[in-house]
């Protein structure tokens, strides 16, 4: 049995979705007009598919009620789907969430273990640093008495029911096994992959999703403004042709949307800089493009500092660099991040550096004169290195942690 607090787009979809699984679900909504509409069997907003789900489950598996005590008493999970608006300084306002949690605590009359689950969007570390201390401040022992978790939603308005019933992934931010078991049982009928991650990771994934979409919209808008100042460009046609790139069609474009050491090679560094210069000459300063270039220029130093920290700032440590080409599957070393990282380490006083790449070592040695010696094999590098850093995501490096006891810095996030 589940209680869902807040019956807006997310809450009502969640409540009816759990009812569709066969669970008994109580729904609580403080807006009297909205609650009366739902109790009458009608939707308070337009959302295709949800109207039929409400007709199917109202009074059978779904019970919208105002009695908090009855709802909470019978529930193993309490889901919070209340508003978390942002204030003047941009920070999330948790007033409604705290209020809902407080009302929950006020009506608990037994020692039954329950999981309090935040489905509202909350910034990373909110559960860990704000909600758990809030509960403990009310005398609750977490997770002995109550479990806490987050379960971010990925619902599009106009497609909420479709997105819930045909989810592409379920994310559960949990910190104890008991809560995880309860939530896995809740989703036992779900065929989508379920990922149980840390509390912070669960919250971060939702923001990663939304900020990524926001950035895509903004860079598209910025490029349209650049086209306007240059002139003579059919912007709509240009974007339609861009979308014909097979990387968009097949989904392989996602390989570009992944953290690493920065972009390299011949085209991206050259073209982003040239285009930014051209737009600026036309009187428009593209902020997203400018900061894209700035961050990429900073990534070698940022990455070198990560490697130095792993070496405990010991200048005599032997640092092993795995990968010299800018991309796996190529021997192209033009503007490769690996060279910039090695140069940055050299400048910081690290001279004992060994490197290995399955195909690019000859090219690298031809183009760069650095304090770095190349070794003939992957095995030889692992024997010599006190610290190993992956700087090119060659698949053969995926087993590195099973082959060395030295610290591994995964600069390409491939492990």
Task: Give the helix/strand layout.
Elements: E1 2-5, H1 9-20, E2 25-28, H2 32-39, H3 50-57, E3 62-64, H4 68-73, E4 77-80, H5 95-107, E5 114-118, H6 126-137, E6 146-150, H7 160-165, E7 170-174, H8 177-186, E8 194-197, H9 199-230, H10 235-242, H11 246-250, H12 267-281, H13 287-310, E9 319-322, H14 337-347, E10 353-356, H15 361-367, E11 373-374, H16 378-384, E12 387-390, H17 400-403, E13 408-410
Parallel strand pairs: 1-2, 1-4, 2-3, 4-5, 5-6, 7-8, 9-10, 9-12, 10-11, 12-13
Antiparallel strand pairs: 6-7
Helix pairs in contact: 1-3, 13-14
Q: What is the name of the CATH class of the largest domain?
A: Alpha Beta
If you average the pLDDT, what whole number results?
Answer: 95
Number of helices: 17
The strand count comes to 13
Q: Walk across the major sheet and give the strand order.
A: 3-2-1-4-5-6-7-8
Please estimate the helix content: 40-55%
The fraction of residues assigned to DSSP E strands is 5-15%
The CATH topology of the largest domain is Rossmann fold
Question: Which second-level CATH architecture of the largest domain applies?
Answer: 3-Layer(aba) Sandwich
* Domain count: 2
For CATH, the homologous superfamily of the largest domain is named as NAD(P)-binding Rossmann-like Domain
């Amino acid at each position: 049995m589940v209680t869902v607090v807040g019956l807006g787009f997310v809450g009502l979809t969640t409540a009816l979705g759990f009812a569709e699984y066969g669970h008994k679900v109580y729904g609580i909504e403080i807006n009297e007009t909205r609650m009366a509409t739902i109790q009458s069997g009608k939707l308070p907003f337009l959302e295709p598919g949800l109207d039929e789900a409400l007709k199917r489950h109202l009074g059978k598996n779904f019970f919208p009620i105002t009695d908090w005590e009855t709802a909470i008493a019978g529930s193993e999970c309490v889901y919070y789907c209340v508003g978390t608006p942002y204030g003047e300084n941009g920070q999330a306002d948790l007033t409604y969430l705290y209020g809902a949690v407080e009302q929950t605590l006020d009506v608990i009359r037994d020692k039954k273990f329950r999981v309090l689950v935040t489905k509202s969007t909350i910034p990373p570390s909110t559960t860990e640093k704000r909600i758990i201390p809030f509960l403990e401040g009310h005398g609750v022992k977490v997770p002995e008495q109550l479990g806490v978790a987050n379960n971010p939603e990925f619902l599009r308005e106009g497609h909420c029911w479709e997105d819930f019933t045909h989810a592409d992934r379920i994310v559960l931010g949990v910190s104890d096994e008991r809560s995880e078991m309860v939530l896995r049982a809740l989703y036992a009928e779900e065929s989508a992959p379920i990922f149980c991650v840390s509390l912070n990771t669960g919250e971060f994934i939702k923001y990663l999703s939304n900020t990524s979409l926001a950035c895509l919209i903004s860079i598209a808008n910025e490029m349209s403004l650049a086209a306007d100042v240059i002139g003579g460009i059919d912007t709509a046609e240009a974007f339609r042709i861009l979308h014909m790139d097979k990387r968009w069609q097949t989904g392989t474009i996602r390989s570009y949307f992944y953290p690493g050491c920065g972009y390299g090679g011949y085209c991206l560094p050259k073209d982003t800089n040239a285009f930014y210069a051209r737009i600026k000459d036309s009187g428009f300063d593209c902020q997203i493009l400018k900061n894209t270039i700035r961050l990429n220029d900073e990534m070698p130093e940022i990455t070198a500092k990560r490697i130095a920290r792993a070496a405990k700032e010991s200048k005599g440590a032997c640092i092993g660099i795995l990968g010299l080409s800018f991309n796996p599957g190529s021997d192209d070393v033009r503007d490769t991040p690996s060279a910039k990282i090695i140069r940055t380490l050299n400048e910081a006083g690290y001279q004992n550096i060994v490197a290995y790449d399955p195909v690019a070592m000859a090219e690298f040695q031809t183009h760069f004169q650095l304090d770095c010696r190349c070794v003939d094999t992957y095995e030889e590098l692992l024997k010599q290195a006190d610290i190993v850093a992956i700087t090119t995501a060659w698949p053969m490096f995926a087993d590195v942690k099973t082959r060395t006891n030295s610290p591994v810095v995964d600069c390409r996030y491939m492990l």
